[in-house]
């Protein structure tokens, strides 16, 4: 196919803290990159961090910062293969992780690519490098994977942040089947977390302050759900259900208040899994941690080496994100507004095909 010279992209403008759809050049891939025609890109809560105070140091700073294409959760079809790329052909449907300017081989890259310093620091697509709400994308081939048969790029897009992050929030607990797991925030990531937890044989309690999200959690298989804002006895009820507390709490939200309350529903020695990122710093009692009242774990979208395992599990257990699709890039404004207002259900995505 003929590759155009220009394309549409939804870009963040730091000068007035806005998003605009612009015409920009189609990226010219490096020899180690794939050029991908975007099939679908979906909105993640962390995309909105561009519009908020930069507590995590994710975006460029200083005067005259150029517009930056938003998005880090997408999938598409390979239309160009760099000379150094191996294992890919034109026409492959692929998904990919959003890190750039990393070496893939250092000790830090085996933990998370964000910590790689080999080339002066990781650049995250959608935050410090152009992202994926664009008609074409260039990504390093070592961050990409060919999708398994039966999984289209349109269906797969939300899996490459929400899905893989939700998966590791559950899989990295390492608990046996039959364990009690509470999931805080059962929306965009959490509704997938419920599905992954049930697939691992856990007994699942969903916690959210939005009743519609709790209904979705029940549809995904949650055994019990509670709204802490309307049920003042939820801690007592959970401890009664679980005979003393949950074995783990997985927090997918950006709410510091929910992190402060999370240990209340844990049994002694339980796991607090940190996934969501509040603007405020989290605080814990050193006594609680030292005396193992609870253990603190963390999970994220992980590293490329784990993508095959994640996709195989997702396919095997029929886990599906709940997605509202839009068909125009200009709909990004409505999507952002819905997510900012807390009205998004599941994932919001733009189909480019």
TrEMBL record:
InterPro entries: ADH-like_C, ADH-like_N, ADH_Zn_CS, ER, GroES-like_sf, NAD(P)-bd_dom_sf. Signal peptide: none annotated. Residues 14-350 form the Enoyl reductase (ER) domain. Keywords: Metal-binding, NAD, Oxidoreductase, Zinc. GO terms for molecular function: alcohol dehydrogenase (NAD+) activity; zinc ion binding. SUPFAM superfamilies: GroES-like (SSF50129), NAD(P)-binding Rossmann-fold domains (SSF51735). SMART domains: PKS_ER (SM00829). GO terms for cellular component: cytoplasm. Gene3D superfamilies: Medium-chain alcohol dehydrogenases, catalytic domain, NAD(P)-binding Rossmann-like Domain. Its cofactor is Zn(2+). Pfam families: ADH_N (PF08240), ADH_zinc_N (PF00107). Belongs to the zinc-containing alcohol dehydrogenase family. This is Alcohol dehydrogenase-like protein.
């Amino acid at each position: 196919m003929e590759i155009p010279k220009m394309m549409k992209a939804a870009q963040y403008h730091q000068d007035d803290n806005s998003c605009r759809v612009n015409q920009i050049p189609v990226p010219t891939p490096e020899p180690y990159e794939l050029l991908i025609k975007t099939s679908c890109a979906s909105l993640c809560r962390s995309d909105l961090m561009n519009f908020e105070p930069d507590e995590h140091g994710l975006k460029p700073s200083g005067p005259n910062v150029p517009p930056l294409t938003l998005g880090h959760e997408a999938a598409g079809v390979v239309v160009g293969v760099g000379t150094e790329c191996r294992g890919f052909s034109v026409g492959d449907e692929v998904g990919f992780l959003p890190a750039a300017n990393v070496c893939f081989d250092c000790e830090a890259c085996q933990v998370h690519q964000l910590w790689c310093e080999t080339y002066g620091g990781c650049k995250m697509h959608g935050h410090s490098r152009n992202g994926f709400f664009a008609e074409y994308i260039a990504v390093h081939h070592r961050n990409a994977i060919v999708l398994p048969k039966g999984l289209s790029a349109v269906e797969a897009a939300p899996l490459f942040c929400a899905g893989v992050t939700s998966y590791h929030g559950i899989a990295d607990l390492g608990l046996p089947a039959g364990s009690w797991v509470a999931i805080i925030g059962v929306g965009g990531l959490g509704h997938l977390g419920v599905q992954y937890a049930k697939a691992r044989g856990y007994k699942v309690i969903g916690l959210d302050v939005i009743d519609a999200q709790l209904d979705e959690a029940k549809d995904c298989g949650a055994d019990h759900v509670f709204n802490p804002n309307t049920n003042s006895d939820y801690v007592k009820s959970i401890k009664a259900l679980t005979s003393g507390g949950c074995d783990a709490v997985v927090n997918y939200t950006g709410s510091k208040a929910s992190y402060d309350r999370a240990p209340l529903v844990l049994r002694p020695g339980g796991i607090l899994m940190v996934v969501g990122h509040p603007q405020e710093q989290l605080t814990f009692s050193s006594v609680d941690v030292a005396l193992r009242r609870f253990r603190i774990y963390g999970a994220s979208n992980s590293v490329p080496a784990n993508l095959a395992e994640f996709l195989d599990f997702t396919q095997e257990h029929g886990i599906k994100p709940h997605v509202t699709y839009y068909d125009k890039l200009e709909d990004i404004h409505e999507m952002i507004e819905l997510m900012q207002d807390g009205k998004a259900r599941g994932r919001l995505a733009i189909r480019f095909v």
